[in-house]
Design goal:
The complex is a heterodimer of chains A (202) and B (298).
Chain A (H helix, E strand, L loop, with lengths): L6 E5 L9 H9 L10 E5 L8 E5 L8 H5 L5 E3 L5 E3 L9 H5 L35 H7 L11 H5 L5 E5 H13 L12 H5 L4
Antiparallel strand pairs in A: 1-6, 2-3, 4-5
Chain B lengths: L1 H20 L8 H6 L9 H34 L11 E3 L3 H25 L7 H29 L7 H8 L19 H26 L5 H5 L4 H33 L11 E3 H7 L1 H10 L3
Antiparallel strand pairs in B: 1-2
Helix pairs in contact in B: 3-9, 4-5, 5-7, 7-9, 10-11
Classes of the chains: A alpha+beta (202), B mainly alpha (298).
Chain lengths: 202, 298
Amino acid sequence: MSENARLKFYCDEHRCISCDGCSVACAEAHELPAGINRRKVITMNEGILGLEYSLSIACMHCTDAPCEQVCPTDCFYIREDGIVLHDKEKCIGCAYCLYACPFGAPQFPSDGAFGIKGVMDKCTMCAGGPEETNSHKEREMYGQNRISEGKVPVCAAMCSTKALLVGDSAEISDIYRERVLSVGHGVKTQPYGWSTAYGSKI
Amino acid sequence: MKSKYIIIALLALSSLAFGASESVVWSDNLIDNILGYDKKGSLHLGQYFTILQSTYFKPLFLGVLFGVPAVFLLHYMVIGPMIFSHDRKKIYVFTLFHRVIHAIAGVSFILLIPTGLIMMFASTFGGGEFVRVCKEIHAISTLLFIVSIVPMFFMWLRWMFIHLDDIKWLMIVGGYLNKDKKPVPAGRFNAGQKTWYWLATLGGFIMIGTGAAMYFQDIRLDILASNHISQIDFLRASAIVHNALGLAVVALFFTHVYMAVFAIKGAIHSMIDGHKEEEEVEILHSSYYRELKEKGEV
């Protein structure tokens, strides 16, 4: 990872099979309450032949994050590696971040009393929050901090088709470019046989 | 028979509950919300909201918060307050009902405006529990506002329509630019009071609607879906309208308080005991005074 790395998610729409594994893994790993979907799989152009594709979306950890710009409490902070996090103790649950977000990422759990929305919850790229790293409080409020343990965010780690990529944006685009360029290459038209296994000589 | 109705009622209620559990923001509607962000044909409200909220609203509110009182301080020092004789007769202008409704509205404004401003400048107050409590007070005091605004709208409506006097009043800025005791063209309510009335009632209804939309957030409104307006776009519009109208409400509220408390000495008593000084009515509401004279009530 280079020094100027900015961590990003990218979902390869040619690979996503809409299995919802990422969102289930996310909800399980962070023990999210029902109704909170930090990550969600959506299907675009549903039912239109040839145009239909699925994507996994969550907080995209924008470089110029609009949520951070509109927040009246200034509870957002963008880490040096580009992860956009927020302080739930400052958040007042006004939902302005939701209005600014192009992806509908901010979530608002019901606070209990009269079903009124509580403070905002969103994808942390498995990097926790402003509390002490890997403390009980951080885990309770923000979920697992896998980044601090050197692990990949759980959604991308378990993506069965490796559609969901996460990492330095430059590397992610390299991987995607390679995938695009190699479409149709190295495809076997004949079944594997003797020659592949042992060579043409007997 | 009775149990049948109870079951029907329960079914109806449960369908409501299920209807509410399907989110308008995050369920299948999420795609509409995302596509509606800045695509061709959308209202582009995501972009506008972000720009307005990140760069314009705070300075504008700061300007109103300090600019309006500064102008009035200048007015008070340069021109000074209007002082009317308290020796002449008093004219009964506001009934007990008017005063009670006005007092409820007054209390709701005193709660709504500071809590609203605290939310706007939440970062200055450090956010967190204090601002969250203010947010709840802002929501709860809306109930007081609703209780007062409906009767207020109807009780003064018939005097609030535009009149030729209002244009004349606006031309001389209500006679506040000098201390001459020349009769000012105005009926029972002058153009300034009428503006405040329409802003507080019609504007108030819009404030209540947009505020409730933002507070409850995930309420399904079929009228939006049938007009292809996504829920988040509706919330963005609500926030923009609520803040823009809020600017006007804060500015006119300060004006209203300045007029009642400082600019016209003793004017506030008309909303406490219902009586205005005869000279005050004669000068500031000259058309109304003439009307009373014709009727022989003064």
